[in-house]
Specification:
Length: about 750
């Protein structure tokens, strides 16, 4: 029996010829050949190319000058051949491949088709070549004759497949990827959501990687409603793979790349959550409806004929956060999770940092083009207003911040045992994704978990190094491959050394058992250091508690400008009192006697008073080099923004929310209740102790460097995106920091050997 090969796509009904065999490729794209034979494929009597026969071929291999090289898909002959072949399929939707009716070859017959059209590139380049083929009289007449013959069951003239569409299909064929658009996934509530499914073309069963979110499942993100939308995304996809002319960061916003994962034996399922794209329902971001749809999509993927029953989730930001909510609903087929730049407690980690409204994230989210795309009439809950109307964790737990809330669902992870790889941010322009990765790791009670602390998590997730590690994790949990990935240390820390430099350090637990929690004490007496030319009035930060009582007073009032672009200060640059480099008070230490690696959980303890009934405390922990200049510990996120402050770590607290949660608080990391019953405005003359959690972080401080702690009334540019400024307790107010033996304040940092 002759060997059988397959033409990827599959492309069925294409003529082929070898020295010993001829016929049409089968519905599975099969052809017969003998070993070592050269073969050709034909449309009508037009030979389109030749290639040495093999068990698997794809169309880009039959043009010798391309020879299967995906970097040469823009070859004019290959492009035009592919455009015509894909147009000749019975349907214009190629989810099941391209099936050419046998009668097509008779209609084409002996008419000669010029696929090359060697246009003058000095004039209009490839656009001229595309137009020449589209307008070629032979091609135009052929499409008319095909329509008149009713060979497709439709007498309307067909439009040629576009070059971008054809080349993207060629690429998927070459990589062995089948794409199925707008697949309906049924929900337990009787509705459905739509998904794009990408599967390996080779027969077999495979694990699936599923995500479910609001951004849109089309290439890059957003949704497809019209033919113009489709072509827009086809061009984006082509540009991405040909040198990324559009500077796109992802195939699809914050999800795995199909071109990287599917050829290695994974299906990828991208789901538009209820209300997003063309999925019906109310769009309620971060809510229960989305979590339930995600759960149902996981269960659907785990029971398909092409599935091996194991499902993993991988995503960044929103598409990381949503994983925890889905996992809390216990889908049976969820076997492993990779959550990059994630959050769990959506009250404190996203909406209200330290009880202060994270105000600027939402307009930035919308301005960045991440507003959920909706096909048809929008039905979206006003989650921003609901958040603003809910200043406490228990404002309305059925609506917001509860484990089954309509929006901003903070899931209960107490019985989630799914293996987890969490990635926490060490620095980010916004105030999110820093606390959350640590919380996900610590609060998910699975014995099988890992944690990375990355600086550039946004880009690093797509690096070859990260992809290899994440594939190993999923290979182990979803394919059962014993590869040793779980024998490696569970904690990997990118220890920042300043100005974008760092090194990797692995640990066996988090927090690190050998940590020494060292204190530096606040002393409101003037410091001897005058190295910073911006502000002359530094106060002391010492290794010994001060022996006398002093106080530092600062204005709580600043002047604000309208909303500014990402990375710009909101404070009025014309107002010296609002300059974030001088607002509030700053304490600075003596030069360090030894190098010190900071890794883990820190806190600030203060005694405070105000002439108003509340205080917003914003703490920046900064590092001053031995050249008296600040060391940049925010790396790539602030390069090119000279007005930004670049802290090692930071923290926030609204003083009326100072009540500590006795269950969640530890000696190294305070946690606050943020419930209505514990709301405690300040009384006149009242001095109160407060504890502020610092974002868990990592960095190496060098001998001779100084620690600087800024305590400010507003973000300025020290903390990323801006928080709410409430003039009712800022304007005209004076805040006071008390230091001394009876009001001993300090910063506590985690130092490891």
């Amino acid at each position: 029996m002759a060997p059988t090969g397959i033409l990827a796509g599959p492309i069925a009904g294409l003529r082929y010829k070898t020295p010993t065999h001829l016929g049409l490729t089968s519905e599975r794209g099969e052809f017969e050949y003998e070993a070592g034979e050269r073969m050709t494929f034909l449309i009508g009597e037009n030979a389109i190319g030749y290639v040495t026969a093999a068990p698997r071929l794809h169309l880009a291999q039959v043009i010798p000058r391309v020879d299967g090289n995906l970097d040469k898909l823009k070859d004019s002959g290959l492009t035009n051949i592919a455009r015509l072949i894909f147009t000749l399929g019975r349907t214009e939707l190629r989810d099941e491949g391209t099936a050419i009716p046998p009668e097509v070859h008779d209609i084409i017959g002996s008419r000669r088709i010029n696929f090359r059209h060697d246009a003058d590139y000095s004039a209009t380049g490839r656009i001229d070549k595309i137009r020449q083929f589209t307008e070629d009289p032979v091609v135009v007449r052929l499409l008319e004759d095909l329509a008149a013959s009713d060979v497709f069951g439709d007498t309307r003239p067909r439009t040629l497949c576009t070059p971008a569409n054809a080349r993207n299909e060629l690429r998927r064929n070459a990589l062995g990827i089948l794409r199925f658009r707008d697949v309906r996934i049924p929900l337990q509530n009787g509705s459905y959501v739509l998904a794009d499914v990408f599967r390996p073309a080779a027969p077999g069963t495979y694990p699936a990687i599923v995500n479910c979110g609001p951004y849109g499942k089309a290439f890059n993100h957003h949704s497809i409603e019209t033919s113009d939308d489709l072509e827009h995304h086809e061009i984006e996809e082509e540009d991405y793979f040909f040198g990324n002319a559009g500077d796109l960061q992802f195939e699809n916003h914050e999800t795995v790349s199909t071109a990287v994962w599917v050829p290695d034996g994974y299906a990828v399922v991208r789901v538009d959550m209820p209300g997003a794209g063309a999925s019906p329902g109310e769009l309620a971001p971060w809510g229960l409806a989305g979590a339930e749809a995600f759960r149902d999509a996981i269960e659907w993927a785990g029971t398909q004929p092409w599935s091996n029953g194991a499902v993993g989730t991988w995503g960044m930001s929103y598409l990381a956060i949503s994983q925890h909510a889905a996992a809390s609903l216990h889908p049976e087929h969820l076997k492993a999770m990779i959550a990059i730049g994630t959050d769990v407690d959506l009250y404190e980690e996203v909406a209200y940092n330290g009880g202060v409204l994270n105000e600027q994230f939402w307009p930035i989210w919308r301005a960045a083009g991440l507003t959920p795309p909706i096909v048809g009439e929008p039905d979206i809950v006003d989650f921003v207003q609901i958040m603003k109307d809910s200043p406490f964790r228990d404002s309305n737990p059925d609506e917001i911040f509860g484990p089954r809330a309509r929006v901003f669902m903070s899931p209960d992870l107490s019985d989630v045992t799914v293996p987890l790889w969490a990635v926490a941010s060490t620095t980010h322009l916004s105030n999110i994704h820093q606390l959350g990765g640590n919380a996900a790791y610590l609060n998910t009670p699975t014995p099988h978990k890992k944690l990375d602390l990355w600086e550039d998590w946004f880009q690093h997730a797509y690096s070859a190094e990260a992809v290899a590690q994440h594939k190993a994790f999923f290979d182990y949990w979803l394919k059962g491959i014993e590869n040793g990935i779980m024998d490696t240390p569970p904690i990997r820390l990118e220890i920042r050394t300043g100005d974008g430099t760092s090194y990797l350090q692995e640990e066996n637990e988090w927090p690190i058992a050998r940590t020494e929690y060292q204190k530096w004490y606040f002393d409101a007496r003037p410091s001897d250091w005058v190295g910073d030319g911006v502000r002359p009035d530094f106060l002391r930060l010492g290794a010994v508690a001060p022996g006398e009582s002093t106080q530092a007073r600062y204005s709580a009032e600043i002047q604000l400008t309208p909303w500014a672009p990402v990375g710009s200060p909101r404070v009025d640059p014309a107002s010296a009192d609002s300059d974030p480099h001088v607002t509030g008070v700053s304490f600075v230490s003596e030069p360090l006697a030894h190098d010190a690696v900071i890794a883990g959980f820190g806190k600030v303890h203060l005694w405070v008073e105000s002439t108003s009934d509340d205080i917003d405390l914003f703490v920046s922990v900064r590092v001053i080099g031995d050249d008296d200049r600040e060391v940049d510990f925010t790396g790539f996120t602030t390069f090119g923004f000279p007005f930004r402050i670049a802290p090692l770590t930071k923290g926030w607290l609204k003083v009326s929310h100072r009540a500590l949660d006795k269950v969640r608080s530890t000696e190294v990391q305070p946690a606050h209740t943020h419930v209505k019953a514990d709301y405690a405005p300040l009384r006149p003359g009242e001095i109160v102790p407060v504890e502020i959690a610092l974002v868990p972080n990592v960095g190496k401080l060098l001998k001779g460097q100084r620690i600087r702690v800024d305590i400010q009334p507003h973000d300025g540019v020290a903390h990323g995106l801006n928080h709410e400024y409430n003039p009712s307790y800022h304007d005209g107010a004076t805040n006071i920091i008390h230091t001394g033996p009876d009001t001993c304040g300090y910063i506590q940092l985690p130092v490891i050997g």
